[in-house]
Design goal:
By secondary structure, the protein is α/β, with parallel strands linked by helices. The chain folds into two domains: 13-358, TIM Barrel (Alpha-Beta Barrel), CATH 3.20.20.80; 364-447, Golgi alpha-mannosidase II (Immunoglobulin-like). The protein has helices at 21-35, 72-84, 144-149, 163-178, 194-202, 236-248, 278-281, 290-302, 347-358, and strands spanning 13-16, 39-42, 88-93, 105-106, 112-113, 183-186, 209-212, 232-234, 269-272, 307-312, 364-369, 374-379, 383-388, 394-400, 406-409, 416-417, 420-421, 425-428, 433-438, 442-447. It is globular. The structure holds ligand LM2 and calcium ion.
């Protein structure tokens, strides 16, 4: 079956990185549903190697749905709770490889394993042994064969071209679909030929949203465009370019952000300011950038390019640090703003999800920029945002929103709920104009879904 694109008028994804299943369930009901998030992307649910680092989740040892984040029953309860709240579930699917430790051991759920030996699941003949670089590791990203047949950081690389491996991987994905899952983030997609992912897609028991992780590298032989036939593809240039614009260039350059910058076609692009890898590996804006990070997310949610994912992190000091856990290594329940950043709850970001939903389908109009760091645009007839990233306030100006006359909640500074606004109210006149003062590094946003 074909992979479905995000559908409906609720398309925003939130990545609840390393949240345990009971916490995801609670968040769907308390926040994600009410705020209008359409999808939650969860961390890999399968059994993984033991250890305290976050990345143990990317080293599968079996496809039992039992991990640091919870049991199969808890996973099922989470999917049901999210669906009841109107939120679909995307699973991070690790299908390119198994574990990467030379020594074997016992997995999280008790399965014993060795490198290239996963009893009952895979044996040595199910893995690539590319015969390069002395240890079979990928070194040269200019070489297609090497990137897809050698090992990514020693991770046992599955022979995804074989019928047995494809059937086994599809059985795992179909098990997740039977639990009600709606889509998959295909981890390490660059390391699998697009045809191998197509073969998995063809084996799915029903249509599911697919988003493939293919990190763009200039001049590399494997390009993100090769994968668009299977579903969406992550556009990694988006977050890097947005960070550069906010840090050292001009917001005015964003007037044709996306395809105009050589990025993927909008209908195939899945975008984010940061994800769990880029927030560790640099070159992007993260929660540590506070207000500027919120503004970058506000821009992403207002700008109609690609399918946006909002990142939600735990606080970390070093790259390997795992999420808060108990003595047995189980991930603790999430406590927002204490150990966990919960960027998706920041009022600016959470309220801009409503802007995205209310403006779905409307094009950009009324673009304004001052040639530097003050920009504004409307989503024709549905919403309007102006971002002032100058070091000074911009006062005494009027803006041409092109919206119906009325009183609107400024969703950057106030939350609209049950017909009232907790912050400033913006009055649009009969000609579609409004007056507002915008402090330095701040914004004003209004939309037809938050009208008094
Ligand atoms: C991904 N996308 O393609 C994930 O987004 C990324 O987070 C994963 O790397 C990677 N692919 C493999 O699924 C993470 C992490 C690595 C970590 C691996 C495996 O960024 O640092 O590698 O997961 O857990 C770690 C060690 C590495 C070691 C490897 C195998 O950092 O030094 O390699 O485990 O034991 C010898
Ligand atoms: Ca591979």
């Amino acid at each position: 079956p074909a992979a479905a694109a995000p559908t409906g008028n609720k398309k925003v994804i939130v990545q609840l990185f390393e949240w345990n299943w009971p916490s995801v369930a609670a968040e769907c009901q308390s926040t994600l549903g009410p705020k209008g998030y359409g999808f939650v992307q969860v961390s890999p649910p399968q059994e993984h190697v033991r250890g305290s680092q976050w990345w143990v989740a990317y080293q599968p040892v079996s496809y039992r749905i039992e991990s640091r984040k919870g049991t199969r029953a808890q996973f099922q309860a989470m999917v049901n709770a999210c669906h009841a709240a109107g939120v679909k579930v995307i699973v991070d699917a690790v299908v390119n490889h198994m574990s990467g430790q030379d020594a074997g051991g016992t997995g999280w759920a008790g399965s014993s394993y060795g490198h290239y030996d996963y009893p009952g699941t895979y044996q040595t003949q199910d893995f690539h042994h590319c015969g390069r670089n002395g240890n079979d590791d990928i070194v040269n990203y200019q070489d297609r064969y090497e990137v897809q047949n050698c090992e990514l950081v020693n991770l046992a690389d599955l022979r995804t071209e074989s019928t047995y491996v494809r059937d086994r991987l599809a059985a795992y994905l179909n098990d997740l679909l039977s639990l009600g899952v709606d889509g998959f983030r295909m981890d390490a997609s660059k390391h699998m030929p697009a045809a191998d992912i197509a073969a998995l897609r063809a084996r799915l028991s029903r249509p599911a949203y697919l988003v493939q992780e293919v990190i763009h590298g200039a001049g590399e032989p494997i390009q993100p465009e090769e994968y668009t036939g299977n579903g969406d593809v992550h556009e990694f240039r988006y977050g890097r370019d947005l960070a550069r614009v906010f840090r050292s260039e001009r917001l005015a350059y964003l007037r044709n952000f996306g395809e105009g910058w050589g990025h993927l076609p909008s209908g195939s692009a899945a975008v984010f300011v940061d994800n769990h890898d880029t927030q560790r590996d640099g070159g992007v804006l993260t929660y540590r950038d506070r207000g500027i990070y919120a503004l970058a997310n506000a821009f992403m949610l207002a700008w109609p390019y690609g399918s946006p994912t909002v990142m939600s992190s735990y606080t970390f000091g070093n790259r390997d640090q795992g999420p808060p856990s108990d003595g047995a290594g189980r991930t603790l329940n999430t406590t927002c703003y204490s150990g966990w950043e919960c960027e998706h709850r920041w009022p600016v970001i959470a309220n801009m999800v409503g802007f995205r939903n209310a403006t779905e389908g409307a094009g950009v109009a009324n673009w304004y920029d001052n040639g530097n760091n003050h920009i504004a645009f409307s989503r024709a007839g549905k919403g309007y945002i102006t971002i002032n990233d100058e070091d000074h306030a911009i006062t005494g100006r009027s803006y041409h929103a092109g919206l119906p006359a009325g009183r609107y909640c400024d969703v950057i500074h106030g939350t609209w709920s049950n017909g009232s606004c907790s912050g400033p109210v913006i009055t649009v006149d009969g000609n579609g104009w409004f007056a507002a003062d915008i402090p330095a590094h701040d914004a004003v946003a209004i939309h037809v879904g938050a009208r008094l």
